[in-house]
Structure formats: structure tokens, C-alpha cells
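Record format v2
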Amino acid sequence: MKLLVTGGAGFIGGNFVLDAIASGDEIINLDALTYAGNRDTLAAIENDPNHVFVHGDIGDRALVAALLAEHRPDAVLNFAAESHVDRSIDGPAAFIQTNVVGTLALLEAVRDYWKTLEGAARENFRFLHVSTDEVYGTLGATGKFTETTAYAPNSPYSASKAASDHLVRAFHHTYGLPVLTTHCSNNYGPYHFPEKLIPLVIAKALAGAPLPVYGDGKQVRDWLFVTDHCEALRTVLARGRVGETYNVGGNAEMENIEVVKAICALLDARRPRADGQPRAVQITHVADRPGHDRRYAIDASKLRDELGWQPQYSFEQGIAATVDWYLDNQPWVQRVLDGSYRLERMGTA
Ligand code: NAD
């Protein structure tokens, strides 16, 4: 397939693009290369004739229109976003600009292109919007988010993603654009920018620095290894019902503190501290994130029962693979940290 992917130099988009090129797809990769975008992630496919990288903004409707007219993709996958909750607390405007205004410009360009298609090309075209479970808000001790859970976003990030979801839905109902939307739980794995919990803890643990755990650390997330998410997206793209939403989750609920301890144990086994102390001694509880959602859990039975997708990685397998990847790819981490981000705390409001 020929796909226009947005945000393909980021964490999930980058993993998706690498897998897609390996599978023989043609990718036009539109990315604004914000602090979170990293062409290093794409080094292995830099000269691949099936990969065209375009440095640009999804909010540039004329650019998107020109790319669509030139390359005539079979589908568009929208990963591009401002994605970090803490940053959205410090500066929500960038989130509205890319996630809402940018998504609107992208949708308008894609709608105009889709209207020019005929026959099977028009029938089979899809716009897949990659969204998050955070639009549903927070859960108590029991229950899971389903596709019919009411939206209740609590952070500027999740509010901006919720708004973009509504625009995507509206473009289907108003203009007939064949859209699909996915709501995925927390991802982890290779090429994850080290401001997010798992790569941050790995980086700080190796540096001998305090490991910041927000509040009591008992916030629960349902962790999904990134390649399982990418496979879910391919499944939804191939067989999802137009206009539907699909939840994607790993059946791997963990408290943040358990995640941090698991990383410490893996590093203790692979790279023991020089003084022989366990890395858990570096754990430091810090003030909680304002408005921190307590628990997310995903019911992914619709995706399993309708389309046959299931995660392949348990949390134990995925976290071990992730720690090993970071140990083997320290130059990637160092180059990311050569930019403006230095592992500092953000989003304390
Ligand atoms: P990321 O921050 O690692 O990457 C985002 C990418 O988008 C970067 O390469 C960045 O340069 C690019 N980008 C930002 N603004 C842009 C713009 N205006 N135009 C073009 N490109 C732009 O994010 P991620 O973790 O890979 O998340 C990708 C998508 O998946 C996001 O839409 C996010 O909301 C969603 N999502 C993420 C998770 C998760 O756990 N990371 C879970 C569920 C859903």
C-alpha cells in the first residue's frame, strides 16, 4: 500500500514506518520535527526508495494537498500530535494548534483529495486517526473503557485529542470521509522520547539520578508494547468498519511504582550499580501531577472479536525487550538529549 503517515519521526509513528517499509509498503512521511521528532529513528530507511520524508506541518493545508495530489496514497494515518501531558499543563496552546487546528487542516486537505478519487480507489480509501484512551478520563478501582464510554478528558492534552476525535467523526458524518479512529492505552518500546515514564526511568537509573515517582505511584496504566499497537493499526486499517472506533489495549494493568521497580530489577541484573546497591534506592516520590488521572484500563474485546487482533507481548516480555533496546542504543538516547530536553520535570503548574 501507499500510505501518507503524519508524525512518522515520533515514537509510535517511527515504529510504524519502520515496520511498514519492512513489509513492502510505500510511505510518505510528513513530520514537523518538533522536539519529539527524530530522524535518527529513521536512519535505517533514509535511502529506501519506498520512504519519502517531508519536513512539514499537518496544519499546512496547501502542502498536504500537494503531497496528496503528487503521491496519491491509498490511506492517511494521523500520528502527528503534541503528546506529552506534562507539557500540555505548561503550555496548552501548542496542543490546540497541532492536535485541533492542525488536524482540521489535514482533514480538509484529505477530504478534498478523496473527492477526486473514483471507483475502487475512492471506495477503499481510509483516514485512520490515532487517538488515546485518555479522552475517556479516569476510572475508579474497577471497570474498563469501552468504545461507548463517554468522553471526559481531564488534561489539556486529552482535551485536544478529544476535540480532534470529534472533528474526525464529524468529517465522516458530514462529508462522508471514510474514517477510522483508534483509542490506545500507554505505549512503550524502542525510540520512545525520554520524557515519558519508562525511557525517563531507564535514563535516570543508568545515570545514578533520583527516579521521580509522581505522588504515591499507584496510578494504574494499561501498558502496550509499541509493535502490538502498530499491528493493531494495520488490522484496523485493513478490516475496520468505516466510521467505527476501536479501543487498543495490552491487558497489562500496572501501577507506575510497579513499572519503575520492574525497570530497576532488570537493570540490576544487566548493569549492576558499581556499589552493588539495588537501583530501587534511587526511587524518589515527588509532588503528583495536577489533575493526574488515577486509572486507565481498556476493554479491547471489539478489536479482538471483530478483527481478530490480540497483543503478542506480555508486560514482562515487552519491558525486558525495551530495557535491552535502550542499553544497546545509548547513542540514540544521547543524541535525543543533545537537543533542548535534559530529563527535567515539567507540568507542575
Ligand atoms: P511523539 O510525541 O513521540 O511523536 C509525535 C510526532 O509528531 C513527532 O515526530 C513530531 O515531530 C510530530 N509532529 C508534532 N506536531 C506536528 C505537526 N504540526 N505536523 C507534523 N508533525 C508534527 O508521539 P507518540 O507517542 O508517537 O504518539 C503518536 C500518536 O499516538 C499521537 O497522536 C498520540 O496522541 C497517540 N497516542 C500515543 C500514546 C502513547 O502512549 N505514546 C498512546 C495512545 C495514543
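The chain has twelve helices and 13 strands.
The two ends are 44 Å apart (CA to CA).
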